[in-house]
């Protein structure tokens, strides 16, 4: 452009950048609008959301957890476990079993918990995978519940953590908050899981008469959970032992020289009450400020500079069953590559190359102890319980399949 000093390439670059930013702005909320449009029957009137089906709730939650906010959703689910470790009645039992508190078994116990949770959350309701995982989890818990080792209120509190923590983390750290439709869908999924687990809702104000919809249930559950933490989240040596063991699992693949700093950042994500209950020191101001700054910058970048994740890049947690063996493989792992197939994409991802360079663990045929062949749901859990409970689980699966209706109506 004569006389202005602005060249053609500069103008083209500015125009391209402006066009890209406009495209991001146009597409960033498109999926939210698409969900609201597809499931408009639940938002057409105040009463419509009361009839949300488990199938629709699952579909909405899957888009939220696998496409819209996969990173924050998975972090929140994992950190929900740390919240539970702050309740002495929970931590004492977990320490007594030894599975999570011993170095030799903590990694597998964490992986098995992750497998069952993801099978339940990310497999459609009523499918054999989802039903089998619920039945397996119920069977593992039943012996402790029948003996009184697991308190009913602790079961409700833990269920509440898995329902509430993803919503809280998305609200605080993601580029947008969840809509009421999305929050209700998450509530329907977890309320239904609580039903098939036989969890009592009697501590909640409407536990006897029931709730009209997931939003009502979620509100009461959050209020009750906060009060439960005030009363029961207190310091205990079992809390500390369990949290240290779990933190060591999380930091397995972090280079030794930066582990202390990484641990400080992890603890900075805990609430003050949880840190006190775990007897962890308050991280330095620069750590807390740095974490807040990084998450704030991430939020701004995602909102204004990054295109939304396309559907073909949705985060998948496990593979389909292997045709010959019927085994499933994990597509993601935190510490050791339990159940991860060496030929899978998680072996050849950017993260795997970084782990190779820094001495971390990657899927390999040379580490059979991590079972690269995969897992069968009836075998997931403590080593001494593999393959057990076949008859009990089959009976439980039959019962679970009969409980597929909407979990919200009077008396539920």
TrEMBL record:
Positions of transmembrane segments: 6-24, 75-95
Signal peptide: none
Domain of life per record: Eukaryota
GO MF term list: oxidoreductase activity
InterPro entries from the UniProt entry: MPAB (IPR046366), MPAB/Lcp_cat_dom (IPR018713)
Start and end residues of each ER-bound oxygenase mpaB/mpaB'/Rubber oxygenase catalytic domain: 71-283
This protein's UniProt keywords: Membrane, Transmembrane, Transmembrane helix
PANTHER family assigned to the protein according to its UniProt record, in alphabetical order: ER-BOUND OXYGENASE MPAB_MPAB'_RUBBER OXYGENASE CATALYTIC DOMAIN-CONTAINING PROTEIN (PTHR36124:SF4), PTHR36124
Descriptive protein name: ER-bound oxygenase mpaB/mpaB'/Rubber oxygenase catalytic domain-containing protein
Organism: Ustilaginoidea virens (Rice false smut fungus)
UniProt lineage: Eukaryota, Fungi, Dikarya, Ascomycota, Pezizomycotina
């Amino acid at each position: 452009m004569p006389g202005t000093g602005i060249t053609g390439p500069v103008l083209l670059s500015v125009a391209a950048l402006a066009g890209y930013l406009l495209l991001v702005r146009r597409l960033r909320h498109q999926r939210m609008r698409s969900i609201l449009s597809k499931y408009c029957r639940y938002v057409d009137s105040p009463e419509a959301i009361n009839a949300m089906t488990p199938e629709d709730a699952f579909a909405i939650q899957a888009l939220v957890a696998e496409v819209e906010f996969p990173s924050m959703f998975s972090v929140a689910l994992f950190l929900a476990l740390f919240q539970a470790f702050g309740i002495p009645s929970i931590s004492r039992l977990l320490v007594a079993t030894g599975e999570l508190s011993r170095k030799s078994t903590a990694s597998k116990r964490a992986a098995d918990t992750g497998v069952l949770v993801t099978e339940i959350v990310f497999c459609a309701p009523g499918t054999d995978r989802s039903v089998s995982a619920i039945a397996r989890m119920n069977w593992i818990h039943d012996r402790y519940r029948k003996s009184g080792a697991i308190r009913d209120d602790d079961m409700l509190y833990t269920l509440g953590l898995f329902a509430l923590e993803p919503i809280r983390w998305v609200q605080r750290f993601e580029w947008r908050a969840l809509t009421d439709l999305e929050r209700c869908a998450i509530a329907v999924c977890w309320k239904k899981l609580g039903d098939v687990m036989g969890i009592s809702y009697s501590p909640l104000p409407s536990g006897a008469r029931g709730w009209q919809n997931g939003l009502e249930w979620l509100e009461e559950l959050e209020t009750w959970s906060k009060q439960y933490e005030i009363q029961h989240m207190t310091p205990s040596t079992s809390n500390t032992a369990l949290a240290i063991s779990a933190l060591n699992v999380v930091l397995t693949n972090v280079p030794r020289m930066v582990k202390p700093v990484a641990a400080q950042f992890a603890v900075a994500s805990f609430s003050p009450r949880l840190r006190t209950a775990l007897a962890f020191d308050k991280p330095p101001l620069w750590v807390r400020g740095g974490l807040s700054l990084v998450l704030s910058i991430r939020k701004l970048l995602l909102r204004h500079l990054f295109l939304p994740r396309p559907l073909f890049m949705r985060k998948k947690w496990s593979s389909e069953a292997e045709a010959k063996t019927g085994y499933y493989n994990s597509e993601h792992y935190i510490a050791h590559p339990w159940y991860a197939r060496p030929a899978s994409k998680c072996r050849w991802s950017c993260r795997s190359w970084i782990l190779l360079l820094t001495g971390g663990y990657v899927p390999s045929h040379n580490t059979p102890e991590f079972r690269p062949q995969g897992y069968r749901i009836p075998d997931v859990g403590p080593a001494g319980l593999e393959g057990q409970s076949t008859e009990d689980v089959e009976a439980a699966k039959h019962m679970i399949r009969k409980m597929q209706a909407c979990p919200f109506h009077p008396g539920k």
